[in-house]
Amino acid sequence: HVLLAKCEERVLVNGHESYLCTNIYPGTVYPHGFNIQTEFRPLPWPTFRFAEANFEVEKTVCLVRGENTVVIAYRNIRSQGPLELRVRPLLAYRDHNILRARNENVNLDVAREDGALVVRPREALPRLYFWTEAEHIETKPDWYYRFTYPTEQGHGHAFEEDLFTTFELTFRIPPGETRYLVASTEKGTTSPSGPALMARESERRRHAELGNDPVCRILHPAADAFLVKRGDGLSVLAGYPWYTDWGRIGLIALPGLTVAAGNLEAARQALETFARHCERGLLPNSFDELTGKPEYNSVDAPLWFIVAAWRWWQAGGDRAAAVALLPKLRTIVQAFTDGTRFDIGTGKDGLLSAGAPGSQLTWMDVKIEGYVPTPRHGKPVEVNALWFNALHMLAEMEEQLAHDATTAAALRKSADRVGASFVKTFWNAAGNCLHDVVREEGADDSIRPNQIFAVSLPFTPLGKDQQQAVLAVVTQHLLTPYGLRTLSPLHPKYCRQFAGNHRQRDFARHQGTVWPWLIGAYCDAYARVHGTGKAQRKEITGFLQGLLDHLDSAGTGSVSELFDGDAPHHPGGCIASAWAVGELLRAYATYAK
C-alpha cells in the first residue's frame, strides 16, 4: 500500500518563495522544482540538491530496514541567515496498484499522541505517525487533484489520482543545520530520532557494501532492497514498484542477491521460507496479495530451488541447515518423477513434461484473454536442463551430507538416462542448436534463450562441440548489450519494441524483448566454452558493461526488468528487477570483480 505519497516543499528566504517539488497535471507542469535541482545521488540513499542565488538545500530520503518507516532530512547548506521551509505531506492511502479519486469518506482529522501527529484516513489501513521538529504545525486539510502519470498513461492504465493533505509543517533552519521528519506505521515507546535512525541505517549499509569496489557499492544495496519479510521468514520481492515475492524470480535471483553479496545467512532464511511452502513437490510461483495464499502454477520454481540450495551449500552454507533442507529436495525430485499437479511428470525417457494446451508453467508465462503467445506445454528445454542438474545436485548432497552413496548412485544413474534422452530429443541438427519445446506433434525450433541453460548450469548433458554450437547461435541471434532477446529477430513473430498498451506489451514480452537476467547464464556458458583466463574475463566484463552503465539510468541504482529487442534498447517493465540485479551481481562477482 501507498500511504505517504510525497511531500510538497517550499523555501522562503527574504520574502522570496521557491518550490523544491515538481508535479505533472493535465496539460501543465507545476511547480517547477526541477529548474533549481542541481544534483541527484542514489547512495547511501536518495539525495536531492536544490540551489538558487540566495540558498542551497539538500533533501535526503532514508527508508529504515525492517520497518515501515521513512526519515526525510532537510539540510541548509547555504543561506543568508535561517531559511524557512514549509512541508506539506501528501497522502494516498491506497493499494499500490490502484489509483483513487477524491473520496468524501476519507478522514482528514489529525490527532496528537505522545509527541506524534497521527492520521488514519481509512480504517482498513494502519495509522501513520509523524514525528517532527517543526517550529509551527498548522492543521490544513485539503485535496490536490489530478496528478498525472505519463508512464501509466502510455501503458493504457489509469493515470490520474487525487492526493490529500492534513497539515503543514514550518521549519526554521539556520545555515549548516538539518531538520528531520520521521513517518512510520509503527508506534514506538519513545519519539524516534531522525539522526539516530539514519546513523544506524548508514552503518548497516556500510557493512552490506563489502569493500570499495565501485560496482559492488551500488549492486549490494540494490540487492539488499529485494530481501523482505514474509511472516517470520525472509523472502525475495520480485521487483519495484509492482511485484510482490514470486517463487521463480526469487529463487533465480537468490544466489546473486545473497551468496554473491556474501550474505549466506539471508540465503538460508529465504530457502527455509520457500521450503515451508512446498506442496506435492511444488513451490509457490506467487502469493495472493489479499489472502497470502500460495499459488503453485510453476514447473521450474522447485528446480530453481534445488539449484539455489546447492549453490548456497557449495558456497559454505550452514551444514546443519543444508541437511534440514534435504527432505524437501527429495520430495521435489520424487514428486516430479512420479507425477504431480499441472501434468508435471517424467516419461519413459526420464524427461520432464509439464502442462497442457492453454497452460503456462514456465517463465515465458504470458496469457492474454485465453491466448498464449508462447505455448510451452510439453517438454521445455530449460526445464529439462534444470531437471538434469537437480538430479546431479541432489546426488552430491546425498553423498556428502547424508553419506548415502546408494541413493547418490541411483540419482546419477537417472541423470545419465535424462542426459542421453536430452541430447536425442532436443538436438536440432538443422539449426546446430537446441529445440525450445518438444511435444508429441513435433518440436518448436524457434531460436530462444532457454537453450543456454543446457550449457550454463553446473552440469551439462551436451558435448563440447554442442556447447560451442549453442553458444554461437545464441550469440548471433540473441545477445545484446543488456541481456538476451527472447526470440531471434529473423523469426516472423519477432517484436522490435516493448511498447503500446497492456495487451501489446504482453504480446511482446517474450517475443524478442531483451531480459537482463539472462546475462548471468550467458556469461556462465561463455566461461564453460572458452574458459576463465584473463582475456576471457575481460570479454565477460564487456558483456556486462551495458547493464553496469544502465545503473545510472531508469531506476537509478538498480536494473530494469527488460529492454526493447532492437537498438537503442529502451528499458521497460519494472524499474528495479530482483533477478536482473541478482544475476548481474552474480556474474560480476564470479568473473569481473
Could you give the distance between the termini?
A: 38 Å
Number of strands: 33
The value of Rg in angstroms is 26 Å
**In which range does the helix fraction lie?**
25-40%
The stretches of 5 or more residues where confidence is low (pLDDT under 50) are: none
Q: Please give the largest β-sheet.
A: 8 strands, antiparallel
Counted by DSSP, the helix tally is 15
Structural class, by secondary structure, is alpha+beta
Q: Which overall shape is indicated by the principal axes computed on the Cα atoms? A: elongated
- The strand line-up of the biggest sheet is 5-6-7-8-15-12-11-10
Strand content: 25-35%
- Mean pLDDT across all residues, rounded? 95
Describe this structure in words.
The protein has 593 residues and is an alpha+beta fold. It is built from 15 helices and 33 strands. Helix 5 packs parallel to helix 7, helix 13 packs parallel to helix 15 and helix 14 packs antiparallel against helix 15. The protein is elongated, with a radius of gyration of 26 Å. The chain starts with a strand and ends with a helix. The model has no long low-confidence stretch (mean pLDDT 95).
Which labels suit this protein?
593 residues; single chain; five-stranded antiparallel beta sheet; alpha+beta; eight-stranded antiparallel beta sheet; 26% strand
Give a brief rundown of this model.
The chain has 593 residues and is α+β, with helices and mostly antiparallel strands.
